[in-house]
Amino acid sequence: MTISLDGPGVTIADVVAVARNHEPATLTDGATARMTVARDIVETLAEGDPTYGVSTGFGALATITIAPERRADLQASLVRSHAAGMGPTIEQEAVRAMVFLRARTLALGNSGARPIVAEGLLNLINAGITPIVPEHGSLGASGDLAPLAHAALALMGEGEVEVNGAVVHASEALATAGLSPVTLADKEGLALTNGTDGILGMLCLACHDAGRLLTQADITAAMTVEGLLATDRAFAADLIALRPHPGQTASAANLRSLLAGSPIVASHRDDDLRVQDAYSIRCTPQVNGAARDTLAFATTTATTELASAIDNPMVLPDGRVESCGNFHGAPLGFAADFLTIALAEVGAVAERRIDRLLDHTRSHGLPPFLADDPGVDSGMMIGQYTAAAMCAENRRLAAPASVDSLPTSGMQEDHVSMAWGAVRKLRRVVDNLRRILAVEMTVSARAIDLRQPLLPAAGTGAALATLRSEVAGPGPDRFLAPELARAEKLLVSEGLTATVEMETGPLA
Q: HSE (CB half, 13 Å, CA atoms) of 165?
């Protein structure tokens, strides 16, 4: 499909489609018209009194007026000087999301850039040209200056880009694709760099991934309930309704659907001497549910930002060009930090369930570490170590970045959001959580197999069968890392959840 970029109306799904699925995007006639009107305002102002970003320097140099014959140099110099990132290159999908979203902001018509500039950005991603963007350089105010400058540099035919896995000079990539470099006019260098598009793009991708992971976290937890001969009574609808947080309600409903009709659960429903299960089992909907509510907040924040004009100064329909603070990343930084904390805790409670499955003193009849021949075999022992290591890293990453402002630009930019750091940490926690859940699924599946002849529920049984198509069941020790990697790959795809939902109906 082609994403019609009008400025308003962009969704998280659109960002994912362009960034990951390489769907093409194009400007609408409405966006072109708005940009043309704003551009006429900028060109009128360029002849009048000094206006920030049009006829002055930038940041602490804003008091310096630039002569008309030097203003094209001003915009190109801005991009070149701001393309000062260092460190490893960020992921291709993150760059594609950033470039697409910068075109979205320009298309709103409040930046004063010509349509050719937004079209040039879309041409890059449509042609599979990905600017090389180093990880370090953004403080989240004035937006993602360095990362966006690296992208703008490619638009100018300078710097390096990636095409089909090869790193080439931007001018070569543009020529091969039949594209021409864009020569920037008044304000356009600033309009290309003064936004939160990198932060927003990565937050959108993280929200998309987190939504899928939280459903999968309920699936792996339900499998652990069966593996530990635990009960589903704590998930009853009337009990959950006494504390009606939306996320908790959704998670508990998932668990009930997944465990419905489970012969394993039914086998000990009436004659179990245990009064209650451990918190890591019984409180699953409370923890996973709280993360769902946090995700809802982060998604709302991202959706609002997708409808926002992010630039400075802003070109208004009445002809004013006003400085503002809309480039400050605090809303996104707070949301990213909050979601990081929540997902770290989903991983933490999953790790505790893994440990319980492997401890023969607490697993209700399972062999130590689910080993085939304990002593000779170590079973899944070190899988828990791996999960614990990632859980520990997530705790470190959960320390908020958004409280860590450092002043820049000669104290003109004396408070910055650090939202880029917040969202970079969030993406790592998302990946770690997926791997922790892959360990839980592998361990709980082995535990369910060891409960035979008792059988799992239809929902958890579908998850088990899907895993068994990639990972063998209990047996003597074997090379474990590839099996965990295949389990992780299942969670990356939509196949596991889709197969389970064929038995349970739609899960939240």
A: 0
Same domain, 396 and 448: yes
Query: How does DSSP classify residue 304?
Result: H
Is 184 found in the same domain as 87?
yes
Same domain (yes/no): 180, 70: yes
CATH number of domain containing 107: 1.10.275.10
Amino acid sitting at position 195 = G
Does 52 qualify as catalytic in the annotation? yes
Nearest to 487 by CA among 446, 445, 441: 441
**What is the C-alpha to C-alpha distance for residues 107 and 308, in angstroms, rounded to an integer?**
11
The single-letter code of the amino acid at 461 is G
- 221: domain CATH number is 1.20.200.10
**Rounded to whole angstroms, what are the CA distances from 52 to 32, 56, 64, 115, 315?**
24, 5, 10, 21, 11
DSSP assignment of 181-239: PPPP-TTHHHHHHSS-HHHHHHHHHHHHHHHHHHHHHHHHHHHHHHHTT--SGGG-HHH
Strands (E), 305-419: 314-315, 321-322
Q: Which of 10, 14, 52, 315 does the annotation list as catalytic? A: 52
Read off the tokens for 408.
Answer: 């820049």
Q: pLDDT tens digits for 115-128?
A: 999 999 999 999 99
Distance CA 140, CA 203 (A): 13
Return the pLDDT at 53. 66
- Is residue 286 included in any domain, yes or no? yes
Same domain, 263 and 189: no
* Predicted confidence (pLDDT) per residue in 52-82, tens digit: 767 776 666 767 777 777 777 889 999 999 9
Tracing tokens 């198509």 back to the chain, one arrives at 469
> Is 175 within 8 Å of 123 (Cβ atoms)?
no
Domain that holds residue 182: 3-195
**Considering the entire predicted model, what is its pTM?**
0.96
Same domain, 394 and 466: yes
Number of domains forming the structure of the chain: 2
Q: What type of residue is 462?
A: A
ω into residue 313 within 30 of 0, thus cis? yes
In a domain, 408, yes or no: no
d(CA 409, CA 503): 58
- Does residue 335 lie in a domain region? yes
Whole-Å CA distances, 39 to 17, 44, 86, 315: 30, 9, 33, 9
